[in-house]
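Input (structure):
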């Protein structure tokens, strides 16, 4: 009989438990422009969220998650691989996710607690340059909300959910990070 301590430290066991629950999504990653957008609230706010950092992407935002196709996407300069403070219970201390790149940020962002805030590269004078259906899940599913003159925007696809999805692709992101870490890739115009 294995001790609790042995179970606790068995990464494969916890991965198996976690993967077996993959079908049971804890969130609703569905939204339409009508149900998740309120352009007048966002115009009044002035795009605070997009001025602080790029929104996060789901693996489902990519058509092809092969290494070669992902490398091509990263070389376009609008994406960042980011290390985040992870989920110690699943022994994935500092997993990687993908988000839109910030102005003046590298393509591989590994400053965990000291990264500067700067606007998303896709933020233009009149808001997001991307059509609604082309925006990453993190941006598409951030629902503007204002109560008592205060913003209470709510994410239907938060960073934790994003992290859990990318846990299945950590080897891919690690390989991409190794390839891109020292590359000078300009941001798109
Ligand atoms: S989603 Fe919220 S924080 Fe972002 S621009 Fe709209 S109102 Fe502002
Ligand atoms: S992609 Fe668009 S919605 Fe997402 S952070 Fe950038 S400007 Fe905002």
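Output (sequence):
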């Amino acid at each position: 009989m294995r001790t609790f301590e042995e179970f606790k430290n068995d990464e494969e066991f916890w991965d198996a438990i976690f993967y077996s629950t993959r079908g049971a999504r804890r969130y609703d990653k569905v939204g339409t422009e009508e149900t998740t957008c309120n352009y007048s609230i966002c115009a009044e706010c002035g795009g605070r969220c997009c001025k602080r950092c790029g929104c996060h992407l789901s693996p489902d935002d990519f058509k092809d998650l092969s290494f070669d196709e992902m490398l091509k996407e990263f070389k376009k300069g609008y994406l960042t691989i980011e290390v985040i403070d992870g989920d110690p219970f699943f022994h994935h201390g500092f997993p990687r996710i993908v988000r839109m790149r910030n102005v003046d940020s590298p393509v591989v962002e590994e400053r965990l607690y000291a990264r500067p805030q700067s606007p998303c590269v896709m933020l233009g004078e009149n808001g997001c340059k991307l059509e609604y259906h082309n925006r990453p899940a993190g941006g598409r599913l951030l629902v503007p909300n204002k109560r008592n003159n205060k913003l209470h925007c709510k994410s239907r696809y938060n960073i934790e959910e994003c992290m859990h999805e990318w846990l299945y692709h950590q080897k891919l992101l690690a390989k991409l990070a190794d390839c891109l870490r020292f590359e000078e890739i300009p941001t798109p115009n």
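Notes: The chain is about 35% helix and 15% strand. The pocket of iron/sulfur cluster (ligand 1) is lined by residues 41-42, 45, 47-49, 142, 144, 151, 153 (CB under 6 Å).
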